[in-house]
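Entry:
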Amino acid sequence: MDSIQILHTIIRYPNDQRVEALVLSIGRFAMRVVPHGMADTIELSLNSGQWTDESGVPIELESFFQEGDMSSTFEMPAVRAAVS
């Protein structure tokens, strides 16, 4: 079984505030994250080479990092096919 990796990022705002966030999905022009300590997700967008938050504030994605191997936590059930 492949290991499950949890991806985090550090978002840096223009005022040098840094926010750690759990990455839920990454697309070509959008990323959905859950900032640490918040219950709601936010969508980050890539527009003309600049990432912005939902209110249009330019941000930088300072780093990405993964948590350890979580494969033992999530066991997938075995799949069996009937043979006739």
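The longest strand covers residues 18-26.
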